[in-house]
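Whiteboard transcription, Tuesday session. T.W. wrote the C-alpha cells on the left side:
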C-alpha cells in the first residue's frame, strides 16, 4: 500500500511540474539563455533559486547554466515576473541518485545470531 501511495505521489508531482511550466516565456527574459529551451518558469512572489529548480526536477547547477545571467547566489538577475529556462531540448530533467550508506558492526539492540526474527506484519506498516 505504501508503494502505491508513493507511486501516486510521484506521478502527481510530475504532472504538477509539467503543468506549471510554460512552453514560451511568460515574461521578459535575460540575454544568453539557450536557444533550445523548451520550458520556462515565470518567477512569482516566494520563488527563489532553490524552489524553482526543485519544482522542475532539475539541479541548481542546471538552472544556473541555462540562465547564465543569474548569479550563483541568485541575488543578481533573478527577478519577479521574468521568465527563466527550466528545460532544454535533449536534456532529461529527472535523475536518479544513489544514496551512500555506512554500516557498522556495533548494534544498539542484541540480535539473535542464526535466527531470523522478521515480522512480516510490522514490515508492511
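and on the right, the sequence the group agreed on:
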Amino acid at each position: 500500500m505504501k508503494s502505491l501511495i508513493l507511486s501516486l505521489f510521484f506521478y502527481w508531482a510530475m504532472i504538477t511540474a509539467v503543468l506549471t511550466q510554460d512552453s514560451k516565456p511568460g515574461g521578459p527574459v535575460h540575454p544568453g539563455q539557450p536557444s533550445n529551451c523548451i520550458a520556462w518558469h515565470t518567477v512569482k512572489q516566494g520563488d527563489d533559486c532553490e524552489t524553482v529548480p526543485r519544482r522542475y526536477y532539475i539541479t541548481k547547477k542546471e538552472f544556473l547554466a541555462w540562465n547564465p545571467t543569474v548569479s550563483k547566489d541568485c541575488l543578481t538577475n533573478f527577478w519577479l515576473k521574468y521568465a527563466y529556462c527550466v528545460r532544454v531540448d535533449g536534456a532529461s530533467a529527472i535523475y536518479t541518485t544513489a544514496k551512500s550508506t555506512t554500516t557498522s558492526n556495533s548494534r544498539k539492540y542484541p540480535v539473535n545470531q542464526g535466527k531470523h526474527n522478521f515480522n512480516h506484519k510490522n514490515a508492511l506498516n
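Someone added at the bottom: Residues 2-88 form a domain with the Membrane-bound Lytic Murein Transglycosylase D; Chain A fold (CATH 3.10.350).
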